[in-house]
Amino acid sequence: MKHCIDIKDFTVDEINELIATAEDIIENPVKYAHTCNGKKMATLFYEPSTRTRLSFEAAMYELGGVVLGFSEAASSSVSKGESVADTVRTVACYADIIVMRHPKEGAPLVASMKAGIPVINAGDGGHNHPTQTLTDLLTIKREKGGFSGLTIGICGDLKFGRTVHSLINAMSRYPDVSFVLISPEELCIPDYVKEETLIPKNIPFIETTSLDDAMPYLDILYMTRVQRERFFNEADYLRLKDTYILTPDKLKNAKPDLSIMHPLPRVNEISVAVDDDPRACYFRQVRYGKFIRMALILRLLEISV
Ligand code: CP
Fold first, then answer.
1. For the whole prediction, is pTM greater than 0.85?
2. Ligand 1 centroid to 150 CA: how many Å?
3. 152 bridge partner residues
4. CA 263 – ligand 1 centroid, Å
């Protein structure tokens, strides 16, 4: 049985197939409207979410299926101390596929070993967010036409930003990609990302604290939020949270075809004045998230169209 726990669960060919399906859904939505008739998806969200949960739910409804679940653990028997394993064994009696967000790293993996139905990781702690990465890849494909030869700047909280770790892993599997990793020293990319992905594959990367210096070289600027919920110390969060604020002025030296991405939610790191710049594609990115999740649901339920 196939699950989606880590972007590494998918080969490049499988990722390309998901992107191709998502693009076909965009072009031919009617063809997919009843493909999940009679199927149920459970969304088990132990942490807050807007985009991931609602895009999965919209995706399942658009495929003709239905959705059940909870959006906060407090409204379920988790609040009485029920384990992840018992929760998913219970939910598997009512649903065909589970989407889980959990603050503990590895919780969706545990769920996948106990559920007996496909499990999708919708974000586990500071670890992984594979469906955000699939969303990012579809966005890059739509905005840039492909993946090869791109210089990708990733800016902000590279330590706790779970979308960053998955994105680097995924993009490193395409030819001729390089990274500029822009962060305060305290929030730099973890060593394991460099040691497991960038260094063994000889992927060119530089680490810098200066967004201004990096800007002229970037094809993609992927901004991230400083992850307040992962900090142990509020004072450190307050000191670091506004290190980078993207404004129209900061974009003066950017390429005319730069793509500005952000997994959202944003706090202060992109000024709303940037939203009207045609290079800002973070709300298009939100929209693409629904289509790639539709493709993923079909793949994991082994439904061919
Ligand atoms: N990008 C993302 O995961 O957003 P939500 O936290 O709103 O789901």
1. yes
2. 25
3. 179, 220
4. 7
